[in-house]
Records
---
Amino acid sequence: MTHTIVPAKVYVGVWAVLIALTFTTVAVSKLELGEYNFIAAMTIAVAKATLVVMFFMHLKQSSSMVRLFVVAGLFWLAIMFVFVLSDYLSRGWQPIGQWW
């Protein structure tokens, strides 16, 4: 298996993008987007996580077998989220009374 040496410029560039996305997250949190604040924050978080996995964890240079396991793990995580959220969203919640 050959190892690819990534130039330092790539890491500095990815770091700069991560810092920019962090500032974007802070800026978006100050906006009043209502329900879309969560969607915007999660979109930025997924972009940041993707950059970290692809470059700092060297998934971009990994074999197709490693990529397959990453995709399978993410697929399994999605299944778990679907089951947990389907249980959570299907419950009938009782209103909380005045208890103090």
---
Amino acid sequence: SPNGQSLAYVKDNNVYYRAVILSTSEISLTTDGVPGVIYNGAPDWVYEEEVFGTDSTLWFSADGSHLAMASFDDTDVKEFSYHMYGDPHDPEFQYPEEYKLRYPKVNTTNPTVHLRVMNLADTTKWHELPAPEITVSADHILGTVNWIGNDLGAIWMNRRQNSATYQRCNVETQVCKQMVAVNEQNGWYVLYTPRCTKSGDRCFFLGNANGWQRIWELSGEDTITYKSPEKYTVTSINGYDESKDNLYYTAVPASAPQTRHVYRNGDCLTCSLKDKFSNNAPCNYASISFSTDFSYFAATCSGPTPSYTQIYRTENFLWRIGKT
């Protein structure tokens, strides 16, 4: 959990919980897991590889009081057979073994996905947060999940992935409200988990705007404001410093597509970065990571000189620590 007090983990496709990390007492939060068929807290093959890009679908709330879980039912997903040849020097693998994997293809059944949340004060009951089928149909995909203050946010898409809705759910009442809907008639919706403030009053999204991937802010009732300029392709949101209202992101300008730099509220933060160990050669390809309070950042330059990392104080851009 974020507070470092408790632990949730998956074993044999079921979710277990320890209220105290070092305790040997574990609580089974699910019991219906079946390896290869029913997945709780961990994605099946298609969701791991094509949607979430991770092997975990468990999300603690910031204070550790609630746990959200995505589960996947592959019962109706068709099986794909393949051979495992093993080590050619091992006598046990003189003949290949046949393995089966539930693998959905075009026009076949996808896994059935469920999003649930539990108040960990009562570990006997999960609450379902249903997909908005009226918007994304019964054949839908769960795209991303994130906590927004004490609420849970989720992006649901139709199977074609050209229609998506971002829902904000009250985990106590299980009532969900659509924050924004996106329709891409000439393509598909590219998934990015939104960045929201701790209170959940403001959220930042990445999305297409007239052919450019831009950051837009969702604030209040259906109020959208673009936070990055036109003719820039934003590749990632690096962070948001609430105390100073500074939004950091990585972007590629149309005028210099061979470069990649980090920006703060539209101003380039790394364009002046120079390699102090290579005759002050300019950096053309930068990435960045921040300390927890945004007081320092580590800037990595990956070209054209050999890669190097330098640490700076954010306030005055003073170089603090040497190259690694």
---
Amino acid sequence: MARQELVEKAEFEKAVGLKGNLGSFIISIFKFILSIILLPLVIGITKVFLQQLYRQPQYILNNFVFAVATYLILHIFVCQPRSLYDFGQRIIGRLFSFFVPLRRAAYHCLPLYATLLFILYFVFKAIFGYGNIIGYFVFLISFTAIMHLILTAAYLKGESLGVLKGDYFLSLFFVYLFEIILISGFLSVILKGFSFVDPVKDGYNFFVNTHISIWRQFFVLK
């Protein structure tokens, strides 16, 4: 009987791809569940971020949308600027080479070109004035930010080997949250009336309220 059970266990592990890798599979499940838990935070921060943009002058919103659309068209139909992306990420890796864990996090999370454009904005503003350049910089920062996000997602997906892609979704959510909070910070400095605090605060409230509602729906007796 014991031998039969071992045979059945081996067949089961082989069927689901767990043989010799049960620990990794359990970790992947845990990461996948954690990704689902974080999903309302991603939705909440994104929702408030977009609401902030809709309150801006129409040309600011248009430049942001055109930047995202332009990159998506370029990525899908023309080419994927991987060389440009890789060059920027190598610079990030060298800048943070003094601390390996921070280097890996910064390599995936920090959008170099959007950050450089944010710094350059102040130089050009001093030369040309706010009204003459703000639309261009919103476009460029948005374009490079979405480029970084999409190419990082492709890179993380290539690294992920699990069936559930738990590590992929969890890493992508952390990259996305870091980047949208960073871009919110940039825009709060260069755009009048754009709040950095609101996306974080209201996004967190949406996250908490969503999980409270789910808990009450399934676990609280009426």
